[in-house]
Amino acid sequence: MEFLGVLLQLLDATIRVSVPLLLAALAGLYSERSGVFDIGLEGKMLAGAFAGASAAAVTGSAWLGLMAAIAISVFFALVHGFASITHRGNQIVSGVAINFIAAGSTIILGQAWFRQGGRTPSLTGDARFQSITLPGADAVSGVPILGPIYSDLISGHSLLVYAAFAMVPITWWVLFRTRFGLRLRAVGENPAAVDTAGISVAWLRYRAVICTGVLTGAAGAYLAVAQNAGFVKDMTAGKGFIALAALIFAKWRPVPVMFACLLFGFLDAFAIRYQGLAFPGIGRVPVQLMQALPYILTVILLAGFIGKAIPPRAGGVPYVKER
Amino acid sequence: MAEAAIELIGIDKSFGLVRANRNIHLEVPRGTIHGIIGENGAGKSTLMSILYGFYQADSGEIRINGQPVKIDTPNDAIAAGIGMVHQHFMLVQNFTVLENVMLGAEGAPLLYGSISDARAELKRLEKDYGLEVDPDAVIEELAVGFQQRVEILKALYRGADILILDEPTGVLTPSEADHLFRILEQLKDEGKTVILITHKLREIMAITDNVSVMRQGEMVATRKTSETSVEELAELMVGRRVLLRVEKDEADPGDVKLSVRNLTVKDSRGVTMVDDVSFDVRAGEIVGIAGVAGNGQSELLEAIAGIRAAVSGDVIMDGKPIDVTGAADPSDLRERGLAHVPEDRHYTGLVLPFEENENSILGYHYHARYLNGPFLNLDAIRDDAKDKIEKFDIRPADCRLRTANFSGGNQQKIVLAREMEQDPGVLIVGQPTRGVDVGAIEFIHKRLIEMRDKGKAVLLVSVELDEIRSLSDRILVMFDGRIVGERDGEATEGELGLLMAGVEQREAAE
User: Fold this and answer.
1) Of residues A179, A190, A323, nearest to B93 (C-beta)
2) Is A308 on the interface with B (CB under 8 A)?
3) Which residues of chain B make contact with A199, given a CB cutoff of 8 A?
4) Residue B90 near chain A (CB below 8 Å)
5) B201 burial type by CB count under 10 A (0-12 exposed, 13-18 middle, 19+ buried)
6) Contact criterion met (CB below 8 Å) for B352 and B403
7) Burial of A288 by CB count in 10 Å (0-12 exposed, 13-18 middle, 19+ buried)?
């Protein structure tokens, strides 16, 4: 039972750290499937986290925080869209610019508004998304094995966690069972085909980046208003890039995206839990190495293990009508 | 005369200073196949793009079935019953046939109902027009001919009554093209109107009811196909008389310059593409290799040029072997006097973003005459390029222009000028006139004959049987990687066609 308890704790932590990755990766999926590469997931998430924490701190409502996070993130997504769809700019440059703007402006505005060294005030009570106890969780907790799995692992997360995992089948359904999804996948592969079929390429891509904005906003809100109790500078800490790696690792497919994010999340949780611990036969592993583990694995996986990841064919290329 | 399905009245369209279409009048009767021919850049594609809503005409009127319509977007064109099969297919490569056909015409926001509707409709179209395609096949796994069928299905699925095909046979094998023509006949019988854009005169004669000729943005003539001839159409297209069959003297073959012995080449999948092939090319003769595309000609050419390693066999040039199975280096071969005009000028022949003068020395750029110490001698290079532009009549005559901005025919001339002006002993040429207009074809053919008359050995690979027949002194026919027959330049089309289809070989085997 001791082992089960430890494992459940580890998996519980895995879920918590996977959620922002999952939301961000699914966000990237919408944009990139439509042919707009988005390296600015990180920046949008960070801006969303800051806006969410600020709004929640001022209004005392986690929901308003979430709204604010989504609004600012969608705004940045539209800026990216304006640069790369309407003006056919370089999508990488635009994404990097958004990352810089977000990193700088969150600190400056945070200091100007709250004077806590770039932090937002600590959120308490309704200003945070609280964990939800699923029905019957207490009643079954005594049942061996399955009980703890339900009451500790599945129950007891915030609403955003459930929403994030629900987005996996929803995204799959949207992509493969709706008209919007069919057109979205088509425009990322061959925008000329979409154009000649009488569909607006630009409007379709704008809708895709709006989806991206909504989900990165939710990811940011989760970080600042659910997982933590406020905004800390640079709190995304590269999660947007890991999400991008997970997206490539999963070859732009929703269900594999979830597993990729859980894998990266597990490594992260493992590193946090076992840092400084002595392993039999290996001895003490330096903290830095443990912390670097997810990133090292990212490089290894992307370099060799996934085979050929074929991105959407029109990805990164602004659409210009022929002739 | 039947009512006109399409009427174009006074269409004008300019791009900057270029008047792509001038005062075009065109009437296409319903239920006919109407050909539109013209050289590259004559304005055919612009006109059709206006009809399909990609461009708006500066002035003029479009009438469909007698009603004036305004076509601002492809949607308007689709609504007016116009469907288009583009030269470069507008298909999503990793989608299924069904998904491609549905795209843009899904009906409801959710796909559940539309998928089964589309499937049923595809079945009906398949039955009515003989357009057989597996609806669940993925596009990238289909042969080009089938992909084109999907494009036609897409148009019919949207209820097109008028079908425009832009250079539909450029990518097809002869038998695929025949099949396409049968489909077009069937569409015509069902009352559809077909517009066929091409620069191949033979197709016009074979299938159209009427034909309109465009030249430099103007519609210069419309004829009943039965009342015109290839010669007349060619003359109308180019604006002067064209020699369709090149005039040449009897060949005077000299010593063997290039000798191929038992050459075997496999492709990257390990499939044998060239199977134990032997032949000689002598100085002062053109040897043509005929065959349906994909029977090993490309691999043969690449092996001799040192681009692709052969599995076994020998190639001897001027008495000295070329290391075709190992480290044959294209630049060494060039030094030895073997010039190569590759089949695909975009992929291997040119760097399209480069200026014309840079492409005109590529591969010879390290020659002392183009250098100034360790640096390129730009003046010498540009003078050299201007010289070639003049000799080969490359238009526009601007050596600083990006190569991508030249038409296909002129791009091909840039490659030919580069290789021929090095005065090679052996010239191997792949598809010298693919995607090249009639005027330029005539020019290129004359230059090839000139090379022969200067005593060069020329090896010509082409899928255009007419070209092979009019240029070659000897014709080798390749089928399934083997040389299945040798004929002289007077061989008939039927005779060669049978060889190309592998018929004689099969009979011999029985």
Assistant:
1) A190
2) no
3) 103-104
4) yes
5) buried
6) yes
7) exposed
Residues facing residue B264 across a β-bridge? B312
A172 Cβ under 8 Å from any chain B Cβ:
no
Q: How confident is the prediction for chain A on average, in pLDDT? A: 90
Per-residue pLDDT tens for B478-501? 988 999 999 988 888 778 877 887
What is the per-residue burial (b if ≥16 Cβ within 10 Å, else e) of B262-291?
ebbbbeeeeebbbbebebbbbbbbbbbbbb
CA B469 to chain centre: 18
CATH no. of B244-337+424-510 = 3.40.50.300
Cβ contact B133:B119 at 8 Å: no
Residue A150 scores a pLDDT above 60: yes
Contact A194, B105 (CB under 8 A): no
Write out chain A residues lying below 8 Å of B109, CB-based.
178-180
Segment 184-213 of chain A within 8 Å of chain B by CB: 185-186, 189-190, 192-199
Residues pairing with B266 in the sheet = B272
Minimal Cα–Cα distance from B95 to chain A, Å?
8
Contacts of B94 in chain A (CB under 8 A): 189, 313
**Coil/strand/helix, residue B25:** strand
Three-state secondary-structure class, residue B237 = helix
Q: Which residues of A touch B108 (CB under 8 A)?
A: 179
Taking an 8 Å cut-off on Cβ atoms, the answer to whether B94 and A323 are in contact is no
Contact A182 B99 (CB under 8 A): yes
> Considering only CB atoms, which chain B residues are within 8 Å of A253?
none
Interface predicted TM-score of the whole assembly (ipTM), two decimals: 0.87
| Chain A residues touching residue B74 (CB < 8 angstroms) | 195-198
Smallest CA–CA distance from A197 into chain B, residue: B104
B198 exposure class (CB count in 10 Å sphere: 0-12, 13-18, 19+): buried
The structure's pTM equals 0.77
HSE value, Cβ hemisphere, 13 Å, CA-based, for B146? 16
Residue found by looking up tokens 């850049």 in the block: B41
- In this complex, the residue of B77, B84, B106 whose CB is nearest that of residue A182 is B106
Which of 3.40.50.10610, 3.40.50.300, 1.10.10.10, 3.20.20.80 is the CATH number of B4-238? Answer: 3.40.50.300
User: Which B positions 94-113 lie with beta carbon below 8 A of chain A?
Assistant: 94-95, 99-100, 102-106, 108-112
Report yes or no: A267 at the B interface, CB cutoff 8 Å: no
Query: B492 and B307 in contact (C-beta within 8 Å)?
Result: no
SS3 category, A319: coil
Give yes or no for A87 touching B (CB within 8 A): no
CA angle B433, B438, B441 (to 5 degrees): 35
Residue of B nearest to A322 (CA): B54
Per-residue confidence at A322, pLDDT binned at 50, 70, 90?
Answer: low
Contact flag B90-A313 (C-beta cutoff 8 Å): no
Contact A77, A240 (CB under 8 A): no
Q: Given an 8 Å threshold on Cβ–Cβ distance, is B93 in contact with A197?
A: no
Give residue-wise pLDDT tens across range B393-447: 888 888 999 998 888 788 999 999 999 999 999 999 999 988 777 778 888 999 9
Is the per-residue pLDDT at B1 higher than 60?
no
Query: In sequence order, what are the residues at sequence separation of 6 or more whose Cβ sits closer than 8 angstroms to the Cβ of residue B68?
Result: B61, B62
| Domains of chain A with CATH codes | 2-305 (1.10.3470)
User: With an 8 Å Cβ cutoff, are A179 and B108 in contact?
Assistant: yes
Strand partners, B321: B316
Please give the pLDDT value at position A323: 42
Ranges of CATH 3.40.50.300 domains, chain B:
4-238, 244-337+424-510
